[in-house]
Amino acid sequence: MEKHYDFSAMPADWHLCFNVDCPFTALCLRYAAGQQLSAQRPMGNAVYPSALVDGQCDYFCSNQPVRLAVGFSHLFDDVRAVHASLMRKELKDYLGGNGTYYLYRNGRQGLTDEQQDWIDALFKRYGYDKAGAYDGFQWLYHYDSTGTRNL
C-alpha cells in the first residue's frame, strides 16, 4: 500500500528531491514530497544529486511523523511579572524573532522535543520547576528548515 502524505503545512520554499537513484528514497520526506507534488506545483527549490556524498545526504529529512507541541498560550501564566518579560524575550530570540514566536505560540508551527527541552531549561534557569502547559500535541511531519540534516 502506498503511503499518502499531507503536505499542506510544507513551506513553499522547501527543497524537494527527485533523485531516484538515492538509497534513502523510501525514508525521505523530501523525496516523497517531490514525487507527490511535482505535478501539482511549479518547480522551485530542488535537492541536486550532488547532495549525496559518501553515502550521506545533506538534505535528508525523515518521512516519519514526529510528536510536536502546538501552541503555548498559557506558557507564562504561572510566571512572576518580574521574570515574564525577560523570559519571553529570550524565547523570542531562540525561536527566531517576534514573528516566528507568534507562529509557535498560536500553534501554527510545532515545537520539536529539542525546542521543548530548551524551553524547560529556560524555566529552570529562572527557578521554575515546570514549564507552562502546551495547548496540545500532534503527530506531524517536521519540515527541517535549518538547511541540512544528515542520517
Report on this structure.
With 151 residues, the chain is α+β, with helices and mostly antiparallel strands. The chain folds into 2 domains: 1-65 and 141-151, no CATH class; 72-134, no CATH class. The protein contains 4 helices and 6 strands. The chain has helices at 29-37, 81-95, 98-105, 113-125; strands at 16-17, 46-47, 52-53, 56-57, 66-70, 136-140. A two-stranded parallel sheet has the order 1-2. The chain has a two-stranded antiparallel sheet with strand order 3-4. The chain has a two-stranded antiparallel ribbon with strand order 5-6. Helix 2 packs across helix 3 (98-105) and helix 2 packs antiparallel against helix 4. The protein is elongated and about 55 Å long. The two termini are 25 Å apart.
Write the layout of secondary structure elements.
Blueprint: E1 16-17, H1 29-37, E2 46-47, E3 52-53, E4 56-57, E5 66-70, H2 81-95, H3 98-105, H4 113-125, E6 136-140
Parallel strand pairs: 1-2
Antiparallel strand pairs: 3-4, 5-6
Quick overview:
This protein is of the alpha+beta class and 151 residues long. Helix content is 30%, strand content 12%. Strands 1-2 form a two-stranded parallel ribbon. A two-stranded antiparallel ribbon has the order 3-4. A two-stranded antiparallel sheet has the order 5-6.
